[in-house]
Amino acid sequence: VEFLHCDLASMKSIRRFVQQFRAKNCPLHVLVNNAGVMLVPERKTEDGFEEHFGLNYLGHFLLTNLLLETLKQSGTHSHNARIITVSSATHYVGKLHLNDLQSRCSYSPHGAYAQSKLALVLFTYRLQHLLTANGSHVTANVVDPGVVNTDLYKHVFWVVKVVKWMTAWLVFKTPEEGASTSIYAAVSPEMEGAGGCYLYNEERTKSADVAYDEELQRRLWTESCKMVGISDESSRVP
């Protein structure tokens, strides 16, 4: 195991990390986009993005795109490289505000978090479409880990913290249990060659209806490219 520092809330840190990783000339067979914050008070990343959208979504969007060429070179016909992105059931109630992705008009921690998780599902579906169109040996899937007992809940109200403490053993998954679907998506032979799936409890299931809106997927992708400063190669793909 080798550690390389990467701050998903910093575009500069992400680019530096990718540069360091590429310098090692290593193949990349599995990328798991797992980092995130939840229900944080209104604040911005060093690049000026609302933190939920900037860290949970844009950080992973940039990281994945910068590593995409390495993933494509690493995948083969019989062993596809795999991209796994961790979303949440919260995406079902999320709304994507293309005219206000930074939640400047009216900030709600719940709304901003749900929007970032919906964006990850839209991103995954669009990414798989582009990978398929290019004939790449890379698959992209999105995972719902369930309700997991982690430090993500440190920003919830104290009443919720008390309830969580009292019911964790009954309702919440352990971190190990929460990771199981991501691991399944990363290494299971059953997922070889399968992309564009929403997985929960190691099974393919249906995501929110709005996540299948291809026009919304395209518009979010184009806007995301502008925000992180990369060229939109997808413009040539219908």
From TrEMBL:
Its EC number is 1.1.1.441. It holds the Pfam family adh_short. Pathway: Protein modification; protein glycosylation. It is found in: Lipid droplet; Secreted. It is an enzyme of class 1 (oxidoreductase). Belongs to the short-chain dehydrogenases/reductases (SDR) family. This is Polyprenol dehydrogenase. It comes from Hemiprocne comata. The gene is Dhrsx.
